[in-house]
Amino acid sequence: VENQPVPSMVDQPKIIAHRGANDRFNESTLTAYEIAAKDGVDSLEIDLRLTKDNSLVAIHDQSVDRTTDGAGKVIDFTLEEIQKFSTVAVFGNNTHKEEIPTLEDILEKFVDTEHYYIETRLVDGRLVMEEQLVQLLNEYGLIEKGLVTIQSFSEESLNKITELAPEVPLTLLFKKGQFDLSRAKQVEFPYIGIETTDVTRKVVNELHKQGKEVHVYFNNRDTEKSEQKRVKALLVDGYFTNDITYTKELFKQ
Ligand code: G3P
Ligand code: CA
């Protein structure tokens, strides 16, 4: 058992705003991304879903139920229909409302002033986002400027991205409790995304020895701060943070 952390090539870990500054505004909205950008994060994390009429929208869940005043699956609405709903979230005494943005709304707002960390997924087992996504990123010149990382739980989706845009760095995500170290070491992708409770010293050291970066996400807000501190000692390379202020403080020089 190794007791020493094995560093990677990275000097400073990446601070990735998970769904924007979701602790201060409705997750995955333009305002949440704007707050994160003003905070000076390294990257804006965006989950993609497809509407019935093939628009890429920024929303995490399969349905709009948890985050908006509507109900139903994203794939069952047209863009026009889905944008009639408001995301709704309560912060202290204030209820904030804002529409679900398309990916293009976000790119149009920040263009090349931000780095985007975009999550793709299969839709009913099919590869239907990737071509449109790469085309859109190219329209904004973001791939050639190195301003995009793409992440997915689906290797198939990442392989498709490699085919379309080999220069984009990719992150293979593992679900909480399903991390597979030998698989993670084998794959070609340079970054591995792991839920914090699966992150051990051995995992980080072995991936670093393979030249891979470890990017950590946090499913439990109640333990996130202590987990961020714990994995800092292991020298992980990226934080999908739900609390930008805290993560920035943790890495203040
Ligand atoms: O993308 C990293 C992390 O966001 C993966 O989990 O469910 O929050 O998208 P999830
Ligand atoms: Ca995500």
TrEMBL record:
Highest taxon, organism lineage: Bacteria
Record keywords: Membrane, Transmembrane, Transmembrane helix
Listed InterPro entries: GP_PDE_dom, PLC-like_Pdiesterase_TIM-brl
Domain GP-PDE per the UniProt entry, residue ranges: 13-251
The name this protein goes by in its record: Glycerophosphodiester phosphodiesterase family protein
Pfam families, per database record: GDPD
Record PANTHER family: GLYCEROPHOSPHODIESTER PHOSPHODIESTERASE, GLYCEROPHOSPHORYL DIESTER PHOSPHODIESTERASE
